[in-house]
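Hi all, long-time lurker, first post. I run a small reading group and we've been trying to get comfortable going from sequence to structure in the token notation. Rather than ask abstract questions, I figured I'd post a concrete chain and ask someone more experienced to write out its structure so we can walk through it together at our next meeting. Sequence below, copied exactly:
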Amino acid sequence: MSENSIKTAVVGAGSWGTALAMVLAKGGHDPLLWCRSADLSAQINADHATPYLPGVRLPVNLSATSCLEDLSDARVILVVTPSKAMAEVATNLAKAGIHDEAVLLSCTKGIELETGRRMSQILADAFSNHSIGVLSGPNHAEEVSRELPTATTIAADDEAIAKRLQELFTLPWFRSYTTTDVAGVELGGAIKNVFAIAGGIVEGMRLGDNAKAALVTRGLAELARLGVALGGDAGTFQGLSGVGDLVVTCYSELSRNHRVGRGLGEGKTLDDVVASMGQSVAEGVPNTRSIYCEARRLEVPTPIIDQVYAVLYEEKPPAAALADLFTRDPRPEVDGDAMSR
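-- Answer (accepted) --
Happy to help. Here is the structure in token form:
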């Protein structure tokens, strides 16, 4: 390890967790990547490759393990698991034990259905004596692993912690910004997943660029309206973790959520679309239910989210959802702000 290196670990060896581990490795921090599967950890250590990032060679200073206890001396631990597994993983990691000074960084986008907790809140409940941060932005794992130019946002209540984490994610091709608006950064990353599915539906139905632009613009207004109601700062949703993440997932075929929507727009069933994706996780599918429930709880108008929910969970045809959106009562757009719907 180099003189300035920090002991780091990544919990979750999917494409995003592995890509972030690569960023740490190329910064000289020799990360330890935790895999749920012992076979996968053995493959990574032997071949410096993973099936989650085909054709990508992993840095030799990136190693893997399937034992959570091996992470006990890490000073920074990234948690990059599917949102539905966050509570279980946090509990198991706490039982395994981590260093007293360890900082945890959530890199998962989602809201827990049963409780409405954000991912950082789940970690804070399991690690009440530790600092918690969040990383979110327009970051496709495939592009990060190929060292394509990328920017992201790191949030923590303590600005000093955010800056400490920023140092780990500053490379010639990877740029990070800091903020103390943890809620806003998390909510932008979670809520945009719903609109990514909607963007895919627009693509699958071949509705054109005008429809996609309208979706992104009105989606941003809806995201900000709900995000503010849930505790985020309005300005955060104009940044990388808001509009930046929204744009990239609504337009890119690398987005799993976009692929789900495209399949639905082409007339496939949700079960068929999800089955065709194999081990890939589209967070927008469970998150749509969580976000819809939060919007109803707070009585925040969310017409696009409502229609995506109906397509996913009420078997509403996408064409009928589109018709309902376009036949709502006319209303003004107030300077493009979040209050017009």
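A couple of things your group might point at:
The longest helix spans residues 182-204.
The radius of gyration is 20 Å.
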